[in-house]
C-alpha cells in the first residue's frame, strides 16, 4: 500500500488552491475544474470542490468542518517561512520548539484547517526525517 494524498473539500476551491500555492510555493495541477492537486516531493495535497462530494455519497464530507487533522509540511527553515508568511495567514502560533524535536509554527487555511510548517531541530528529529 502507498499513501497517495490528503484531500480537502473546499467551499471555495479557488481560494483554497491559491492559499496552498502561496504556502507551498508550488503550482497546482488542475485535473478538472472542481479538482486540483499540489504535488510535493513527499506527498500530494488534493483539493476538491464541495460538489465533488456527491460523486462519493452526499454528506460524506463537508467543507470548513475539520478540527481533527493537521496538514504538515517539513521545510528547510521554519523561521524564514514565518517571515515570508507572517502577514498572510491566520496564526495559531509562531515558531516554537516542540517536545518531539521539531521547530514548528501553525496557522489556519481559508476554511479553518490547521496547517503546520516544521523543521527538525534536534539530532533525533533530524535522524528521524533523514536530514542532517
UniProtKB/TrEMBL annotation:
VOC domain segment(s): 2-120
Annotated Pfam families: Glyoxalase
Source superkingdom: Bacteria
Protein name as annotated: Glyoxalase
Organism of provenance: Sphingopyxis macrogoltabida (Sphingomonas macrogoltabidus)
Amino acid at each position: 500500500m502507498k499513501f497517495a494524498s490528503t484531500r480537502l473539500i473546499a467551499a471555495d476551491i479557488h481560494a483554497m488552491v491559491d492559499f496552498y500555492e502561496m504556502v507551498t510555493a508550488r503550482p497546482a495541477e488542475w485535473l478538472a475544474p472542481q479538482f486540483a492537486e499540489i504535488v510535493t516531493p513527499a506527498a500530494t495535497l488534493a483539493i476538491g470542490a464541495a460538489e465533488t462530494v456527491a460523486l462519493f455519497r452526499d454528506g460524506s464530507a463537508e467543507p470548513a468542518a475539520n478540527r481533527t487533522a493537521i496538514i504538515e509540511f517539513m521545510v528547510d527553515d521554519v523561521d524564514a517561512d514565518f517571515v515570508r508568511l507572517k502577514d498572510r495567514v491566520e496564526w495559531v502560533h509562531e515558531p516554537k520548539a516542540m517536545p518531539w524535536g521539531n521547530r514548528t509554527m501553525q496557522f489556519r487555511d481559508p476554511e479553518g484547517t490547521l496547517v503546520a510548517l516544521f523543521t527538525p531541530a534536534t539530532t533525533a528529529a533530524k535522524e528521524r526525517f533523514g536530514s542532517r
